[in-house]
Amino acid sequence: MAPKTEEMRKGPWTEQEDSLLVRFVRLFGERRWDCLAKVSGLNRTGKSCRLRWVNYLHPDLRHGRMTPEEEHLVLDLHAKWGNRWSRIARCLPGRTDNEIKNYWRTHMRRKAQERKTSAYPSSSSSSSSSSSSSSSSCSPPAAAGVVQSEGVKVYSMDEIWDEIAAADSVTGLTAEECGVACPPLPCPKWEDCSESLWKVDDEFKMATGLLPVDDLMLSDFHHSD
DNA sequence: AAATGAGGCAACCGCTATCGG
DNA sequence: GCCGATAGCGGTTGCCTCATT
């Protein structure tokens, strides 16, 4: 339902948009993204707002390189659960599913290529990133076993994961343990923010009346790594 | 110093599940 | 029980940056 005369904005977020989004998320909580998007005046979809918040603006997010522990955890959990990125992400506090997904893609693609080249240095018909990215690169270990491609032995992702997991001496963390030990990111629930809804009028004025940006600690979000 | 390619990351898209009326 | 709205998830794409030639 978008009888809008104006197009929704797409593409990279500006600092102003970020600050506005932060204000309104604090106001409304992490719910009603569609409503939030409209009320805030951001010319973005609720979906886009949510994604921006979850993947970048959330104060509890950790940015920067994965630690070796995190890498091991990702490997282990992916071996267990496959491409359940959101599930895996819940076990890595401060990391998002998108981040882990991206990490896995690049990390594993590189490892796979390394392994292929080291095992079969003469195989020049190595799949390019584009071809491998479409469906096979991240697919869960369904097609196990070694694939024969035009006489060339190719490792399946299953095997690759297996070898990597073995080589890296897995952390040994079970799913259950993880579920207990790694609660989701602490975040204000809609109910928790309901009280603020009653103050929306005032706070809305404050927000639209432009609270000082420094009050929002935007430096936390736009930190340079 | 410039051109090219690869890698990394942010954002979008489509689908599915869940919830409320 | 049905339907529409909303939220969440996984896959994919496009852009930017850095390294290499």
From TrEMBL:
Compartments it resides in: Nucleus
Disordered as annotated region, ranges: 110-143
Keywords, sorted A to Z: DNA-binding, Nucleus, Repeat, Transcription, Transcription regulation
Span of domain HTH myb-type: 5-57, 58-112
GO cellular component: nucleus
Ranges of Low complexity composition bias in the record: 122-139
Segments forming domain Myb-like: 5-57, 58-108
Molecular function GO terms recorded: DNA-binding transcription factor activity; sequence-specific DNA binding
Function: Transcription factor.
Full protein name: Uncharacterized protein
Organism: Ensete ventricosum
